[in-house]
Design goal:
alpha/beta, globular, six-stranded mixed β-sheet, 14 strands, four-stranded antiparallel β-sheet, disordered C terminus, 30% strand, 9 helices
Length: 344
Amino acid sequence: MGLVMAEPVLSFQSVQHRHAIPAPSLFKPWAKRAGPGIVGLSLDLYEGSVLGLIGPNGAGKTTLLRMMAGVLPVQEGSIEGRFDGQGWQPVDDLRQWVGHMPEQVRWQGRTTVYEALSQLGEMRGTSETKIQRLLALVGLRSRKDEALDNLSQGMRQRLSIAAALLGSPKVLLLDEPFNGLDPVAAEAFAALVRTLASKGVSVVISSHMVAQLEGLIDRIGLLHRGQLLDEGPLEDVERRLGLEGRYIITGKGEADALSFAPAEDVLEHHQDDDGWTLTVKQDPQSVLSAAMMAEANLTSWAPVRPNLVEWLCAATGMSVDDISLEVASSAMLPMRSVEVSEDE
């Protein structure tokens, strides 16, 4: 997206929130202890930047977003914000900084879009003029008199964003916003996110589907077991984890993958009656030159992003089988057992 990096607007430094879980004993049947959650996480949010927060189910994405929104308390660590013309200062109330769109917001009933947003706006003292501007911004001005029951899932997501923007936040948190959206609605929603970023809003999108974030995010954060494994511009993180320079090439007929690239650079090779597909990690020009020398019948080639399992394997050093099991599991356990003992 050609982002020119600015100073962070909000900075989380070694923050933590661990959920209390039952730990009964003979004399303390109702005792609890600190369980899974977010541990020692540091993250800067930049003006006009879109951060994709990815991780498997149970990694702590929703917990992190709720903590960043002020819904869950920060048990340890500190938060600072860059006030206009005043430099860095501690942030005591995140709700003045952050707009939060939860994963599931149930907009139901015969109340109209305008009435629902106005009722929420009254709690913040939002003017009618601003309500109208927000409806126009999210593309619901022509639907303002529509009953909530009549809204599509995409329209409900737009209304949720409008509600999150009522306080003119500097940061917008979106928890799995693409769930339930068809491809057309998802692209329209992505266009809305780009518009908000162009207006200087810092956007954080949590997702377990990397493909949904392609072409939308400026930065990526890998969350696993409640900890941020890596974060930064997409290309920088790919380079640090050795995941850059991947290409997928397709062709008709039969092809010997090793005639195009060394075995260590061939990540995947598939052959069927319709043709072949080759995924390689190498300079694309050399691969294409080798394919032409072999007189291969090429049909397409394009860069390809790693999937979630590949991201996590590279960041953790775990095997594909181990990571796949963790992605399928909902257990969120602290990763660094030295720092976070499960017996606490």
